[in-house]
Amino acid sequence: MEEESGYSAHNVSNLIYHFVTPTKYRRLAITETVEECIQQICAGIELRYDWIRFLEVGADGDHVHWLVQSTPEYSPTRIITTIKSITAKRIFAEHPEVKKMLWGGSFWNGGYFVSSVGKSGSEGVIRQYVKNQGKEKEYKQLYLNFPTREAPL
Can you give the residue ranges of every domain in the chain? Predict the structure, then answer.
């Protein structure tokens, strides 16, 4: 997945988001085959929506990490809603066994995590983390430096 900045008529942007979306009920619905399907769906999303570029996609059984580049015209909510909607429909269509596992017609949990990614410092670390999802037997958590509730922003 190639990297480049977002361009429009008069501005250049480099907005990169790290999203995490859990499956409904945190079910282990993302097999290797389903992950390959998600990768193919993402390639199709990039072709259809010129404002979404996937830098990395990594899955680990019950959730997916997405490293996505977009433009300022689109909010993170709109970006992930688009991704979740399209991937869920296609996964259910191509993998009916998954639909049986997740009753209620939803593939994804209603919520998600999102964080902006700095180009100069943490993008490489998060890129490797996302790329290696599900590849190590031992679970490793990525800890980022987030402000605590007590600390002012």
Answer: 11-131
For 94-147, the pLDDT digits (tens) are 999 999 888 778 999 999 999 998 765 567 777 887 888 887 655 455 544 444
Q: Which helix or strand (DSSP H or E) is residue 7 part of?
A: strand 6-7
- List, for residues 39-70, the tens digit of each pLDDT value: 999 999 999 999 999 999 999 999 999 999 99
φ/ψ (deg, to 5) at 89: -60, -45
Beta pairing class for 63-70 and 15-22: antiparallel
* Per-position b or e across 141-153, b if 16+ CB within 10 A of its CB: eeeeeeeeeeeee
Domain 11-131, classified CATH 3.30.70.1290, yes or no: yes
Strand 15-22 relative to strand 12-13: parallel, antiparallel, unpaired?
unpaired
